[in-house]
Design a protein that fits this description.
The protein is of the alpha/beta class. It contains six helices and five strands; from the N terminus they run αβαβαβααββα.
């Protein structure tokens, strides 16, 4: 009678363990103040609130108050403790969110669409792990996609927190 090989953990299980370790490392650091641009859908507001609940970030919600409130209500999350910056639409939200962050100075892809295609190719076709932050501005920018998983969104917050802690330890980045 043939014997069965022991079950090998799936790549999803291994990926989750790695993300859990990353998130735990970031939780040991002070919360990172993060401007969340236009969190007007359940995935965006949910990720910001969950990252805050896990003590990864201190969110500043930037966008139309009515849309942000509606997304929070639909998801059943309380956003009253978070600072909010009013902006009329998504473009203004982005502009206000990055106003204090300076300008990016390192082009990585020619445009957002190309960057999005590249990232999606890696994650969906090659099964790569992802955590989205943009460097080159005064502070890192956490960059997530609507299609990102919950863990990818949290990993992005954790990577930003770890990066800033490293920069502060090296005294390369002041506290904002």
């Amino acid at each position: 009678m043939p014997t069965l090989a022991p079950a090998r953990p799936s790549s999803d299980t291994r990926r989750h363990e790695k993300d859990d370790r990353l998130i735990a490392a970031a939780q040991a650091l002070p919360e990172l103040r993060v401007a969340v641009a236009h969190p007007c859908d359940e995935a965006s507001i949910g990720a910001a609130c969950e990252a805050a609940t896990l003590s990864l970030i201190e969110p500043i919600l930037v966008g139309p108050p009515g849309k942000i409130g509606a997304a929070a209500t639909a998801l059943g999350v309380d956003i009253t403790a978070y600072r909010r910056v009013e902006a009329a639409h998504s473009h203004e939200s982005a502009a206000r969110a990055v106003a204090s962050a300076g300008e990016a100075n390192i082009p990585v892809v020619p445009n957002l669409e190309a960057g999005n295609m590249l990232a999606k190719s890696f994650t969906f076709l090659a099964g790569a792990d992802a955590a989205g932050i943009v460097l080159g501005a005064r502070v890192p920018i956490i960059l997530n996609s609507r299609a990102d998983s919950r863990l990818t969104r949290l990993a992005s917050c954790a990577v930003a927190s770890l990066f800033v802690a490293g920069q502060r330890a090296a005294r390369l980045m002041p506290e904002v």
